[in-house]
Amino acid sequence: MNLIVIFISAALINNFVLSQFLGICPFVGVSKKIDSAFSMGMAVTFVMVIAAMVTWLIYHMILVPFRLEILEYVAFILVIASLVQLVEMFIRKVSKPLYDALGIFLPLITTNCAILGLALYSVLNEYNFMQTLVYAIGAGAGFTLALVIMAGIREELELVDVPGSFKGAAITMIIAGSLALAFMGFAGLI
């Protein structure tokens, strides 16, 4: 039961993008087409899951026993950067069109604060390995959900007449704010 609560909390109630406002750059930048949004969500989810497992192991097997907890930021950033490089090389090799569609946002996963936040929140919440894994999957699912919802709305907006003053970034921010309000409703904040 506890794992289900962690998953739902990470995916909906404490959604990294729409409730905690982590990972906004790819949320706004890659959410123009559903296909690229879903692909980016899957790439981020993959990195989140692998990073959560590796950072948990590093924290609990190396940093804590040697009393080096102060190095958690450095260790976590190195792990995340390495994993993103591996994912980028894999996507470039397997799917060149996907690699081109994600463009600059693929290397930016390295600086995606949602992934670092996931590793730090796992330590802060004192999750065990299985809870950390479920938390990562839930956070990735929530990140993907937010990207796909935003992309779906933006695709539909291309078919309607939006007033000139709202075109571009303005309507994107209005949509993002509305989605954030909706997701905060899951937490009972509204």
Keywords:
single chain, 190 residues, 8 helices, globular
Q: Mean pLDDT, rounded to whole units?
A: 91
SSE order? HHHHHHHH
The span between the termini is: 26 Å
Broad structural category: mainly alpha
Beta-strand residue percentage: under 5%
Shape: globular
The domain tally reads 1
Report the helical percentage. Answer: over 70%
Instruction: Determine Rg (CA atoms, Å).
Output: 17 Å
Instruction: Supply the number of helical segments.
Output: 8
Strand count? 0
Low-confidence sequence ranges? none
What does this structure look like?
- There is one protein chain.
- By secondary structure, the protein is mainly α.
- 72% of the residues lie in helices and 0% in strands.
- The longest helix is centred in the first third of the chain and has 30 residues, at 34-63.
- The chain is built from eight helices and no strands.
- The chain has helices at residues 2-13, 24-29, 34-63, 72-94, 96-102, 113-124, 129-157, 169-186.
- The mean pLDDT is 91.
